[in-house]
Amino acid sequence: MTLVEKVCVLGAGSTKYGKLAESIADITTQASVSAIESAGIDPKDIKASYISNVFGVADKQVHLGPVLMSRLGIPDKPSLTIESACGSGSVSFREAYANVAAGFYDCLVVTGVEKVTHTGTEWTTTYFAYCSDFFYEGQAGASFPGLFASMARAYLTEFDATEEDFARVAVKNHENGILNPKAHIQKKITIDDVMNSPVVASPLKLYDCCPFSDGASSVILCSEKFAKENGGNYIEVIGSGRGGSPAALQGREHLTTIPSTKIASEAAYKMAGITTKDIDFAEVHDCFTIAEIIDTEDLGFFEKGKGVQAVREGRTRLNADISINPSGGLKSKGHPIGATGVGQVVEVFDQLTGNAGERTVKDAKIGLTHNFGATGASCAVHIFQSV
Amino acid sequence: MSVEEQLIEYAKQGKLLTHKCTDCGYLHLSTAYYCLKCGSKGFEDVLLEGTGVIATYTIITVAPAGFEKYTPYAFVVLQLDDTHLRISGFMAGIASPADLPVGTRAKITGFDDRGIIIEKQ
């Protein structure tokens, strides 16, 4: 495969994640404007938009692209809305990336958004379950916490791990999230807090689960030529990989491995010409504590079954062996599902351009994003390098 | 009948309809249209007893709409006997992990508005 253009991230911005009062159209626009201002470009430089969103219907607005473009004063420009469950943001980013790399557009806005907290826990639990293989899973009463809890039970059965080990992931990500002013839950927690929180789907408890969040994130993606001519800070996309897994857990060879993560990351490492040792930090899909442990194994940072030991030894904390989720991750930063994959790129941009404040990963040059849909049925991994 | 409707009809009789590839012999759940191994579209029906052991499960206390009245209940993944296949389903009346150790024997017993019903054997 020959890419016509090198692709760069020229600007990035997010709303705060949490319970937001504004409409989905408002927060989509706010995040996009902050990315445009961060890039130092004019909206008229933007040739198209890629929007990621799952439940726009909950706030009475689907077909968000034209609404955003109209508000940006460029209603004549094309837009596309992409749904890939909780992985929508990274999948949308990948499609935008491919279009810049192929030379179709030299400058795009990629914006992810979700607005669901006003619907309440029952609505979100019910509708999120529609992202599963519904005939086999959602229809039989599986919630998303329930599906990851099934993976957690399998992990506890197969490996030397305890529920307290899962809790350590939550404690670590909350430590990082306290340092992130845009995080949904900025609160220090202890292992006991996690263990004593109400059971949602055994063995997962409330503090093992990320929150339902509102929020929007946006990045400006452009060709290297455009970035150089524009001036200002930018980072380069050096690897992009996608993969898939059987939609239902029952169809997977191993219940403690997400195949799409392995496929996507191996493709991204190959394209970037690097190994896991070259990566300074990673934003990974920790929708539940067990997910982060499985992710770090499937991404190749640790052997299968050893991710839990790495957490126990503090090797994934900020500025330890490899900083995992310096932003606080989905667990603490929050999980507006359509925005999450784009929000991870915002964090990498902030880290590699010196705008991550107290949660800065020291001397970081290369960062990775990993985001998947549902229980990892769809996945995208991207690798970025400072310039 | 669609493939889902067929699977449901047999599940109501406590059986599991599967598809065996006529080219390579690989066994699939009956919702498969092409062989995972060889890509062939030819299948023959094979009816399984729907028995096996619990491969993994969760006990759900915060339920999706329609399931509140059943809490706590288990969502289970059943490893079927004498095959690599697994199937997931709903299991009533499970309140604590002590009620359902991994490896417990179980069987498909029906299908209703809770999807495929699995019970301990």
Describe the structure.
The complex is a heterodimer of chains A (387) and B (121). By secondary structure, chain A is α/β, with parallel strands linked by helices. Chain A has a domain at 7-119 and 212-230: Thiolase/Chalcone synthase (Peroxisomal Thiolase, Chain A, domain 1, 3-Layer(aba) Sandwich), CATH 3.40.47.10. Helix content of chain A is 35%, strand content 19%. Chain A contains 13 helices and 12 strands. Chain A has a 10-stranded mixed beta sheet, with helices on both faces. In chain A, helix 3 packs across helix 13 (340-352) and helix 6 (163-177) crosses helix 10 (289-298). The radius of gyration of chain A is 19 Å and the shape is globular. The longest helix of chain B has 10 residues, at 3-12. Chain B is elongated. Chain B has one helix at residues 3-12, and strands at 16-21, 27-29, 43-48, 51-60, 73-80, 86-91, 105-112, 115-120. The mean pLDDT of chain B is 97. Chain B contains 1 helix and 8 strands. In chain B, the strands form 2 sheets. In chain B, strands 6-5-4-7-8 form a 5-stranded antiparallel beta sheet, covered by helices on one side. Chain B has 2 domains: 1-48, no CATH class; 50-121, OB fold (Dihydrolipoamide Acetyltransferase, E2P), CATH 2.40.50.840. The interface between A and B is medium-sized, with 37 and 32 residues. Strand 5 (199-202) of chain A pairs antiparallel with strand 4 of chain B, so a sheet runs across the interface.
Descriptive keywords:
heterodimer; A: 387 residues; alpha/beta; Peroxisomal Thiolase, Chain A, domain 1; 10-stranded mixed beta sheet; two-stranded antiparallel sheet; B: 121 residues; mainly beta; OB fold (Dihydrolipoamide Acetyltransferase, E2P); 5-stranded antiparallel beta sheet; 3-stranded antiparallel beta sheet; 8% helix; 44% strand
